[in-house]
Amino acid sequence: MAESESGQDKTEDPTEKKKKDAREKGEIARSKELNTLAIMLAGAGALLVFGGALAQDMMDLMRLNFSLSRDVVLDQRSMGTYLLHSGQIALLAIQPVMITLLLAALIGPISLGGWLFSAGTMAPKFSRMNPGAGLKRMFSAKALTELLKALAKFFIVLFVALAVLSADIDDLLRIAHEPLDRAITHSLQVVGWSTLWMACGLIIIAAVDVPIQIWESIKKLKMTKQEIRDEHKDQEGRPEVKQRIRQLQREMSQRRMMAAVPDADVVITNPTHYAVALKYDPDKSGAPMLIAKGSDFLALKIREIATANEILLLESPALARSIYYSTELEQEIPGGLYLAVAQVLAYVYQIRQYRAGKGKRPDPLKDDLPIPPDLRRDS
C-alpha cells in the first residue's frame, strides 16, 4: 500500500481538486499498447480499403519511370520534371493511408483520458538526466512490467505472424506466377490482412494494459486523510487567515461608513451608546437609508464627524436602538419605522428652514415616537 512521506497510508480517493491539478500537469492514464493497437488496426484497414488504388498508382509510377525515351534520358532538365511528377504521384498514392494513420494516432490517446494539452509535460526535467534516477527506473517494478509486456507482445505477434504465414503460404507462392499488376494488388491485400490479424493479437495486450494504467493512475492520486484535511483548509481558508480577512473587511467597511457620515441628513443617538446616520433622497422612491451606525467608540466617532460637518444630532434612544438592531448598512429602514423616521426628517427640514431664516424654530421633537413593539429594543 502506498504511503506518504509522513508515513500515513494513502487510502482515500482523490478529491476533484486533486484530479484537476493532476490533469493540468498531464498526469492522466495513458496506454501505449492501446495507441499501438489503434495505429495497427487503422493501417491494416487503410491497406485493405485503399490497397487497390495504391497498387494502381504504383504501377503508374513504374510505367512513368521505366518507359523513358532516349531524348528524355539524355536531357538533364527532364529528370527534374520526372522526379517532381513521381513525387506527386507517390504523395497522392499514400495520402489516404497517412491520413488514416494520423487520425488513429490522435484518436488512440483520446480514447483513454480524453483530449489534453499540457505545456508542463513539454518542460525539461533535469531530474531525468540523473544517472542514479535512471538506473532506479531501469530496475523498478514498472520497468519489469514493461519488459514483460514487451515480451508478451513479441511472442503474440510472432505466433500470429507464423499462423498467418502458414495459412497464406499458398497465396504467397501464387503471387510469383501472377502478372505484375495483379501481383502488386494481391501482395498489398496479403499484407493488409496479415497486419490486421497481428493487430487483433494485440487486443489481448491492450485489454490487460488499459485497466492496469487506469488502476496505477488512480493509485498515484490516492491521498492521506491529512492531505484531504489540508486541502479542505486551503480551499475554505485557514482560520487565522479568515479571521484576518474578516478584520480587514471590517476596517474597510468602517472607513467607507465614516466617509459617508458627512452626507447624512441626521444622526440619531442614544445619546452615548448608539449612533445611526440616515440619508433620504427625495428623487428616489425608496425609504430613508442607513449609511452609518455604531456603538460606544464608533458611535463617538460618528458624532464627532457629524458635529464637524454640521450634521444635526438628534437624541432619541428608542429609535436609535431600533434602527441599529433592525437595519444593516446601506439598507433601507424597515416599514415599521417609516412613520417615526418621517417625523424625524420633518423635524430636520424644519430646523434647516429655521437656520436659513425662512421659518420659526420648531418645537422639540418628542421622544415618544411610534415604534412597533417587534422593532423596539429597550437596551
From TrEMBL:
<feature type="transmembrane region" description="Helical">
    <location>
        <begin position="147"/>
        <end position="167"/>
    </location>
</feature>
<keyword id="KW-0653">Protein transport</keyword>
<dbReference type="GO" id="GO:0044780">
    <property type="term" value="P:bacterial-type flagellum assembly"/>
</dbReference>
<keyword id="KW-0282">Flagellum</keyword>
<dbReference type="Pfam" id="PF01312">
    <property type="entry name" value="Bac_export_2"/>
</dbReference>
<feature type="compositionally biased region" description="Basic and acidic residues">
    <location>
        <begin position="360"/>
        <end position="379"/>
    </location>
</feature>
<comment type="similarity">
    <text>Belongs to the type III secretion exporter family.</text>
</comment>
<keyword id="KW-0472">Membrane</keyword>
<keyword id="KW-1005">Bacterial flagellum biogenesis</keyword>
<keyword id="KW-0812">Transmembrane</keyword>
<feature type="transmembrane region" description="Helical">
    <location>
        <begin position="196"/>
        <end position="215"/>
    </location>
</feature>
<dbReference type="InterPro" id="IPR029025">
    <property type="entry name" value="T3SS_substrate_exporter_C"/>
</dbReference>
<keyword id="KW-0813">Transport</keyword>
<feature type="transmembrane region" description="Helical">
    <location>
        <begin position="34"/>
        <end position="55"/>
    </location>
</feature>
<feature type="transmembrane region" description="Helical">
    <location>
        <begin position="89"/>
        <end position="117"/>
    </location>
</feature>
<feature type="region of interest" description="Disordered">
    <location>
        <begin position="1"/>
        <end position="27"/>
    </location>
</feature>
<feature type="compositionally biased region" description="Basic and acidic residues">
    <location>
        <begin position="7"/>
        <end position="27"/>
    </location>
</feature>
<dbReference type="GO" id="GO:0005886">
    <property type="term" value="C:plasma membrane"/>
</dbReference>
<comment type="function">
    <text>Required for formation of the rod structure in the basal body of the flagellar apparatus. Together with FliI and FliH, may constitute the export apparatus of flagellin.</text>
</comment>
<protein>
    <recommendedName>
        <fullName>Flagellar biosynthetic protein FlhB</fullName>
    </recommendedName>
</protein>
<dbReference type="InterPro" id="IPR006135">
    <property type="entry name" value="T3SS_substrate_exporter"/>
</dbReference>
<keyword id="KW-0969">Cilium</keyword>
<dbReference type="InterPro" id="IPR006136">
    <property type="entry name" value="FlhB"/>
</dbReference>
<keyword id="KW-1006">Bacterial flagellum protein export</keyword>
<keyword id="KW-1133">Transmembrane helix</keyword>
<keyword id="KW-0966">Cell projection</keyword>
<feature type="region of interest" description="Disordered">
    <location>
        <begin position="358"/>
        <end position="379"/>
    </location>
</feature>
<keyword id="KW-1003">Cell membrane</keyword>
<dbReference type="GO" id="GO:0009306">
    <property type="term" value="P:protein secretion"/>
</dbReference>
